[in-house]
From TrEMBL:
InterPro entries: MFS, MFS_dom, MFS_Exporter, MFS_trans_sf. Pfam families: MFS_1. Residues 22-397 form the Major facilitator superfamily (MFS) profile domain. It comes from the Archaea. This is Major facilitator superfamily (MFS) profile domain-containing protein. The keyword Lipoprotein does not apply. The chain crosses the membrane at residues 21-44, 56-75, 87-106, 112-135, 147-168, 174-195, 215-235, 255-273, 285-303, 309-330, 342-366, 372-391. The keyword Transmembrane helix applies. GO terms for molecular function: transmembrane transporter activity.
Amino acid sequence: MRIWCFVHKGRFFLKGFLKSLELRYILASTFAFFTSFFMIIPIVPKYVEYLGASEFVIGLVVGAFGITSVTSRPFIGEYVDRRGTKLIMFFGALISAFASAIYPWVENVAFLALVRVMHGVGLGAFTTSALTWIAKAAPDERKGEVIGGYGMVIMMAMAIGPSLGGFAYDIFGFKAAFSLAFLIGLFSALLTLCVSEKHIVLRSFGAKGAFREMLASKPVMLSALGIALLTSGYSSLTSFFPIFSERYGLCGFDVGLFFTMYALANIAIRMPAGKATDKFGEKAVATPFSLLAALSLLGISIVREKLFFYVLAASFGLGFGALYVSLLTFALRFSPRDIRGVVSAILTASFDLGLVLGSAALGALAELYGFKAMYAIASTALFSCALLTLIGMGGSKTLVIQVHA
């Protein structure tokens, strides 16, 4: 569908954006990128172990990409605000693809860690620039819906990628699995070349750095803190649920079904949650779904029946998906269009920091007090997020649509 763009009285409008070919290219590229990324998640630890590394070293190597993924984002955000998103998206996808291709040829653990660091740069570059394109090009009155769609394709990749990677590894081995991830990542990079930036507002080179400015922005920092609280609670599932579940008789298939239920619910809620934020405001979505996610984690510390675990997985997926969409939308809707690259960098970095710090803190708590207490404590992060959104977000929907060039 043709995209109609015009500027009238300082306002930026896009008609038919949700059906535009450009948005489809972005979403297809994002899906391919994250499918490639999630494919290698179950494979990399096995490959590091294959090279003879200890459990501690495996953890260091696997997590090495997070260092550059977080630290590179502020610089990437500043760059895309001034130069545009297309080049960074392309090179982010290309770097990640070639990192996947290099893995099976590395036989030294230290060098493998360097490849992970390189992969982290690619991840930070692509995710920051892709979200920035969405945030800058999407019409503000439908921004929640578009962000919901963006998050939905990531969750679809998360649902497919690990199984695809595990299947390729089981049947064909490391080299074939990593090679398939490379090809899918390369396809993602090629798709970015089809994206136009004609709707993207760039920041003046004479303007001051926006990073400090956004650190003082209430919507941005509230959303960043909320996302960190959300992902710290989520880390209790990704890091510890497989171990916790074994103690209550759940097998590997049961754990896989648990995360499948989570992923399906998360996918299903993204678009409706985005539409709800556009219609009713972010607070109307964020606060109740924060409570739903919190009660889900609290329930995991209490229930013992397999069926209830599946129900709680789905309810947490609903809570996570809706809350994440509303927090992203709150920050991006109420930030100047020309510095949304920096905003995207702060938000995506807070996602990673919540996972890293949450895993470390909850692991220590589990060792001291046990898993039941750990899940009860993890739920307090989401209860805190509910309180944060209740107090910090506006009471009604208010749209700010403006261009700061």
